[in-house]
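Request: When convenient, would you put together a sequence paired with its structure tokens?
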Amino acid sequence: MTTNFPSIVGALIFPATTCRPDLAYEVSYAARSMHSATRIAITRLHHLLKYVNTHRHFCLKYYKSGGPSRKYLNELPAFVTQMGSCPDDVSVDDPLGLSDANHAPTDAPRRRSTTGFCFFFRACLISWKSKLQSITSASSHDSELIALSTAANEGIFIRNLLIDVIHFIPDYPRDINQPLHMYCDNLSTVFSSNNPVSSSRTRHIETRYWVIRDYIEAAKLRVAHLRGRHNLADYFTKSIAFGQAFTQCLLWLGMTSIKSK
């Protein structure tokens, strides 16, 4: 498998970024060893191929009414704290995003953190990503801020795209020009994003990651705190053991089996 490792990973990248969000993290992890596959990477890829073969009938299904994802999004406001700037009247039909980071995992090169985010529109998953951060974070606050800033850039792109095409959705009852809602499970990151102050703990962070403050100030984005165990973006930052939690994550993402019975 060592010689075929790059081609196998390359073949998995397309489904992982287009129709199989359940593969996003593991494919991202495998891509780190594209040119120098280690024994651990080969073993994990072997397990991933077994999973793909077993669940080859799984796909991302879109429902007009939102499907299983709507139930998760309807329950989301109950797990949002008062910290942040998202209002209480957020509709599940609005575009919204969730961001998370896995700070300095031991198996990451140079202990770099992993960014994970996902976006929903009309209660359907439309965008997701799992990516190794380009710099080493000094704290969980730093890694979460980098993840939130990366997700915010994607969110602004989605917002601008929807503004351009909203006239093709005549039954959409909401104002698309309202701020896009985002959720993060790190309190200090939410506070730093919503409060343009500098301190000795944040002034070392690169300027480009503070662009999220400009988005919030311009009313293009709103960020609020979400309790960690209810953050679906956590799925894109680490491996989750196969079981009830894993199955629940797949259901909330909108994954379903198209295997004929």
The chain has a mean pLDDT of 88. The domain at 68-236 is CATH 3.30.420.10 (Nucleotidyltransferase; domain 5). The longest strand covers residues 124-132.
